[in-house]
Amino acid sequence: IYAFVKNAVLVRPLGESARLHITQDLADLEMSLEQLVARGSGSTQLSQICNGKPYAELRAVRMMLFWNGLESTSNKSSQDVAKVLLREAWVRDLRPSTVIHYLFSYAPSLLSSPHHVKRVKAEEYVENLVTLDGGVDHGEEDAWMVTMSCCDTYQQRATSAGAQRDGDPRVAQVLQSLGPELLRRRRH
């Protein structure tokens, strides 16, 4: 589940059609896994595996895909947008890197995606974040460090390139405001 979710949130740009397609894929994945788990154990449900965290993230991503906080707060500062996002109920069920990587779908093209900065394919990047045993915690700090590098590079590019016409230029600042709080909440 974590690997699928991580690949889905790295899609960029993420238009309405892609959101609908990913939402359908998530529903199909959930149904298939429910059937597989039911056949395998009979009494266990998908929501019970690993304390329900992967299942909760799967469900939360579907809600996150239709969050329009950047569009509905176009006149607000990046810190206000971060606060609005942190108030969303589904955020508590997501790993920090999932929220962070999703926000890249709103970013200007000058803000490179983390896997591009690391010069690897998205699949390889995801493999480094999600271990074979399904563990994810070790990759959160690494994902945050790569995101900071992306934001720093973006600030330098934006200064020299001037105004961008694509994406929301506040995304880098939202990421910088949001990341530390998401990581703090994950630790507690």
Report what the structure shows.
With 188 residues, this protein is mostly helical. The chain is 64% helix and 0% strand. The model has no long low-confidence stretch (mean pLDDT 87).
Helix percentage: 55-70%
Overall average residue pLDDT: 87
Q: Figure out the total of helices.
A: 10
Kindly provide the radius of gyration, computed on alpha-carbon positions and rounded to a whole number of angstroms: 17 Å
What is the molecular shape? globular
Instruction: List the helices and strands in order.
Output: HHHHHHHHHH
Estimate the strand proportion.
Answer: under 5%
Biggest β-sheet description: none
- How would you describe the oligomerization state of the chains in this entry? single chain
Class of secondary structure makeup: mainly alpha
Low-confidence stretches: none
C-alpha termini separation:
23 Å
Beta strands, count:
0
Question: What is this structure, in a nutshell?
Answer:
The radius of gyration is 17 Å and the shape is globular. The protein is mostly helical. It is 64% helix and 0% strand.
Question: In terms of topology, how is this protein built?
Answer:
Layout: H1 2-9, H2 16-41, H3 53-64, H4 69-72, H5 78-86, H6 96-103, H7 114-117, H8 122-129, H9 137-161, H10 171-187
Helix pairs in contact: 1-6, 2-3, 5-10, 6-9, 6-10, 9-10
